[in-house]
Amino acid sequence: MKETSVILQSAKRAAEEAFCLTTERKNAALEAMAEALIAAKNEILSANGKDVESARQSISDVMIDRLSLNESRIEAMAAGVRALIALPDPVGRVIERATRENGLIIEKVSVPFGVTAIIYESRPNVTSDAAALCFKSGNACVLRSGKEAFRTSFEVTKALRRGLKKCGENEDLIQILEDTSRESATALMKAEGYVDLLIPRGGKGLIKACVEQAKVPVIETGTGICHVYVDAAADLQKAVKIIENAKTSRPSVCNAEEVCLVHKNVAGTFLPLLYQTLVKNRLSEGKTAVELRCDKRASEILSGVCNGGDERYIKAAGAEDFDTEFLDYILAVGVVDDVRSAAEHIAKHSTHHSDAIVTEDKKAADYFAAAVDSAAVYVNASTRFTDGGEFGLGCEMGISTQKLHARGPMGLKELQTYKYVVRGNGQIR
Amino acid sequence: MKETSVILQSAKRAAEEAFCLTTERKNAALEAMAEALIAAKNEILSANGKDVESARQSISDVMIDRLSLNESRIEAMAAGVRALIALPDPVGRVIERATRENGLIIEKVSVPFGVTAIIYESRPNVTSDAAALCFKSGNACVLRSGKEAFRTSFEVTKALRRGLKKCGENEDLIQILEDTSRESATALMKAEGYVDLLIPRGGKGLIKACVEQAKVPVIETGTGICHVYVDAAADLQKAVKIIENAKTSRPSVCNAEEVCLVHKNVAGTFLPLLYQTLVKNRLSEGKTAVELRCDKRASEILSGVCNGGDERYIKAAGAEDFDTEFLDYILAVGVVDDVRSAAEHIAKHSTHHSDAIVTEDKKAADYFAAAVDSAAVYVNASTRFTDGGEFGLGCEMGISTQKLHARGPMGLKELQTYKYVVRGNGQIR
């Protein structure tokens, strides 16, 4: 087994030399990496079969599905790598340029971080997405896959490295830790001088451990308690469609809605419509209905409405329900006085991931967009759009919920820092 | 004494409402803050007198000088506040804008962090600089002054708050901790949910404590082991002037040079010139001479050169000398094979603050600028220019030596994060 410290040292060396990679060389290598993934289909599927086999006892069906590969999923991984070829090279962009009175020319230029480490769980496509994003953005990457997916991730990494080698590039730009113990994750968190950026992708526990223990710079990716606020001036049909989408299109993801706030003036009309759409219609269409956990004002309105045994989908909200990422067919519902109270509620309860207003009133929309301090603030659209692909960034390294450096979906640009290059002809101070 | 937790809560509230501050309102308040500083001259000077009086036993003369105020220094502080009026408002800048195929309009907009906390030591102007930068950039600030300067910092803060009040702005946008114990600094480091950004300005110990203990996002400001590399193609007269400036114009600051590297082809000519300039000339002009700590190759060249008892300024470099921030009239001197070895040496020994090449060879300059991964890389200019004022940022919040978010001098722009504002007309995914 390759020692973690050896991997970190060679990653650092590879990163230090990566400044000479041209866009052409990087794009050629990305193509070779995509081809190598396809060529290694059998090895990857066989490793994946073993991973799935041994994981079956210990993890849920949803997780097994996340872990499982087939031919078309491998092709999708290769397509993800290829998609980066068309995106602009983020390295060496002159962000600002100034000529000072003393003649100094100061340029602020985008440069890679150096070594980026990613700790993730069981989704094999993260291996190729993260490696390809790091490579195109001039970073060396050190991957630390979850134990359940290690065999698969290892084969995927081997294929990507073969692609690099074929093009004469340094294979050490893409490496995976062979040690999948908790200690190896901790080693990355404490690898000062070796890891320039650490991105944890996974559950709450992992993120918390990184934030608390890391001595290297971390970007938190995180939980989403996302709100949709239905304003007095909302188009209620639009609102109910947005909420059904935000809540039910994929309840297990971080950009799914967890809380619906409704302006008191329209609550009497809107809440019955919401109930009709999320409960009655879905039940009659054979879909999973959404449980509504209502605050006092919402309960009063809905108590007179439901009939025919659907009362079990209307519950009184408990103390925790407005602070919970359900990741399930459950929606907390509250009535608020106005857009200001909605923004205040969101400031208090949101995880500042994605929050939306539905309104036809430009003033209310502008107030909400200015007052709500979240990574993504929506006007008349579903929170589900917070995603690297949907934002046009290509595949993503995760969605940052912190404010330092990157916020929201992270793509190539977010894997850059900058430096100042100052040119003179002998200036002294 | 006001409790730290009470201060943090009111800072958070003030920050949440700061989105409604227009540029005009902010500039009017900055003017009022500057006027209030001048008006409070007597109170500030009297508090400063007490601080200086009680500090005299415990701190050095240099520190006493840093701590001491007089009328013209207070005027300079007010001028620093006023200088921000002319600078563009960093808040609400649309950094990127895209219209997606589905009609969504995605804007990436600069927004303040929220609450910015600054832990600093004994320079009173940091109080007004930091508070004014935070205010103009839409942040609430929580200041934590060193104990030695507390009376002064408190009076300065009071004056700034009077300026805010006069304009009807929320005074809680500028607050100072009244507790100056170590615990109050630790409280800021751990104030998750209250402090959005922590900037420590001070010695190594403080920075290290913040990096190790902080649970809130920190920007490290830091030590500078800055290099000047004299290339084979250097104009040697230019080189020696740049080095004298970088080393001796203010040896105690972080952008001062600590290491000189010389290409082997010119070392035989250049090192005697360096010795002449930094030792002989300075001695004969009654200035402090620079002690040269030489590696083996540099020693061999210089051993034949010095005479007349100046040998004491030429020493053999010890193991630590290429990794030490001397902050003194000492320079480590080494001979290297070429620009590549110079860059390798810098990668290994630099703190990635500011490093320079002196050369007339464009290829060598471009190689150095690309290969050296420091916050500021100079071609034919002194490292002393790494400074907010010199870079045109106005006064500065410190010089970041980390790569996450901000690098080099931090001004108004670096006190911004961003959010995505996404506008649609009912889009769902």
In round numbers, the mean pLDDT of chain A is 94
Q: Structural class of the secondary elements of chain A?
A: alpha/beta
- Side by side, the strands of the main sheet of chain A go 10-9-11-8-7-12-13
Strand content of chain A: 15-25%
Low-confidence stretches of chain A are none
Order of helical and strand elements of chain A: HHHHHEEEHEHEHEHEHEHEHEEHEHEEEE
Oligomer: homodimer
Principal-axis shape of chain A equals globular
Largest interface: A-B, 65 and 65 residues
Give the tally of β-strands of chain A. 16
Enumerate how many helices of chain A there are, as a single number: 14
Terminal CA distance of chain A: 53 Å
Proportion of residues in helical segments of chain A: 40-55%
- How would a crystallographer describe the biggest sheet of chain A? 7 strands, parallel
Q: For the CA atoms, what is the radius of gyration of chain A?
A: 24 Å
